Every structure is written in structure tokens, then in C-alpha cells.
Amino acid sequence: MTSPRLAVRAIILHAHRLLIVNAYPGGKSDLWCAPGGGVARGQSLPDNLKREVFEECGLDIAVGAPCLVNEFHDPDSPFHQVDIYFRAAITGGQIDPAWVDPAGIVTARRFVTEAELRALRFKPDSLPDVAWGEAAWSDAPALYDALEPIIR
To answer: pLDDT at position 1, please?
Structure first.
């Protein structure tokens, strides 16, 4: 049995717009998500998140409180991932269309309004609520999204 993969993701609002990325090389999918990725052993979750956001977007961030735990799996394989989302703020850099993710995974990044996000395919389903809803309040407890099948 394989242990679940642990990943971290950032909820970054800038001018009331959420940063999202497309993490499918070669445009294999139109699914969008928050930036972030797998946790490397021996680094804190915030340090992992800072590294991932810089690699994917070229941004330096300050990491705040956790706001969502989301888990998903592939019912036809041993794949199971747990994502821990943190609120974060940009402290340096800016989105540059020429930025290249060294891992070649993130091929597009953009800031979207809530209405723009809702017009796209995105995961997790709770992303707008975490970014703009009651869950976005600083004193709101972190949300939990129960296990769901992976979407590609």
C-alpha cells in the first residue's frame, strides 16, 4: 500500500483576484488550481510552499495560516493526495508570461476574479469559498474537503 502524497498550495489574493495555474504540460487539460506542489522531506510546509510558488510563478511569498485541507484519489490506481492550502501574500516579483517552470509542469498562470474562476474548470470545488467566501475571513477555521476522485 502506498502512503498518500502530501502537497501544499497557496491561496494568493491580489487586488481581489486569485492566482491560479494550469499544471498540465502541453495543454493536456483545461483544469486550473492554486499554485503549489509536493512536499520535500526535511523542509517545513511553508518553506515547501515558498519554493513551489517561486518555481511555478516567479513570486516570493509570505505564508500565513492554513485554510483548507483537500484530498483526492484515483479509484483505479494507488494514487491518493492530500493538499494543505495556506493563505499567502506576494512579497516580491510579478507574473511574467515568459516565466518558465523549471519542472515544466505549470504552463500558464493568471489572476482571476470570482466570476472568471467560476467560468473555468477548476479544483477543488471549494476554491471560490476559500478565496472569497466566509472561509476567507482571517478568523475562520480551515475547511476540509472529503476524499474525491481525481479529475484530469
So the answer is: 53
